[in-house]
UniProtKB/TrEMBL annotation:
Alphabetical keyword list: DNA-binding, Transcription, Transcription regulation
PANTHER family: HTH-TYPE TRANSCRIPTIONAL REGULATOR RUTR, TETR-FAMILY TRANSCRIPTIONAL REGULATOR
Domain of life of the native organism: Bacteria
GO MF, any single term: transcription cis-regulatory region binding
Annotated organism of origin: Kribbella italica
Pfam families attached to this UniProt entry: TetR_C_11, TetR_N
DNA-binding region coordinates: 40-59
Protein name per UniProt: AcrR family transcriptional regulator
Length: 203
């Protein structure tokens, strides 16, 4: 009897050298410029000076390429782990540095993806798993440390509180058309997040 080794999912070949990073960076720039719906594999191939065959050997679809790009490319970095010693300091560090709300590229990419995320289930699933999940994990750790330091009252819904800053900023940016400046972020932190963190103690 011939034994057949049990094989896992086939790994698609990576693009050699620095070409993969160049393709990912070109994809991020095109999402920001054109939006997801207007972006094509042809446009990425042209911008990255690569063949479509190269793209399809590595990525099976536009959704797979885009999510890989926004998750790994230099234009949309995951903010570094922060622990400034206070909730206010941590939120400022996360929001106002590279990869935060004041960083033009991630916000432009978000604008390019918003409409498609409501219609494309594959894109939405991959976006949540690969782009949002690590960022939400980082935010959860910031609020968990704030709870341990006693900065957040016991009667506060910490999960809901942690969603408030991005919700307000994204509403301003994409509904009201207000640029997410550092001043706006500080206003939300100082007048909404920190008072809410005190819970019933503030009333």
């Amino acid at each position: 009897m011939t034994e057949v080794a049990e094989a896992g999912p086939r790994q698609r070949p990576r693009v050699e050298g620095g070409r993969e990073d160049e393709i990912l960076d070109a994809t991020v720039e095109l999402v920001a410029e054109l939006g997801y719906d207007r972006l094509t594999m042809d446009a990425v191939a042209t911008a990255a000076k690569a063949s479509k065959a190269t793209l399809y050997r590595r990525w099976t679809s536009k959704a797979e390429l885009v999510v890989d790009a926004i998750s790994r490319a230099k234009g949309c970095p995951i903010p570094e782990e922060v622990d400034t010693g206070s909730l206010r300091g941590d939120l400022i560090a996360l929001s106002c540095n590279e990869g935060g709300f004041t960083d033009e590229m991630p916000m432009s990419v978000m604008a390019g993806l918003l409409t498609a995320l409501h219609r494309d289930d594959d894109l939405q699933l991959a976006f949540k798993e690969r782009f949002l999940k690590p960022r939400l994990g980082l935010t959860a750790r910031v609020y968990s440390r704030a709870v341990e330091r006693g900065e957040i009252a016991a009667d506060v819904d910490v999960e809901l509180l942690s969603q408030t800053l991005p919700a307000v900023i994204i509403h301003h940016a994409f509904v009201l058309g207000v640029e997410p400046t550092e001043d706006l972020i500080l206003r939300v932190i100082d007048h909404v997040i920190l008072p809410a963190a005190r819970g019933s103690q503030a009333r």
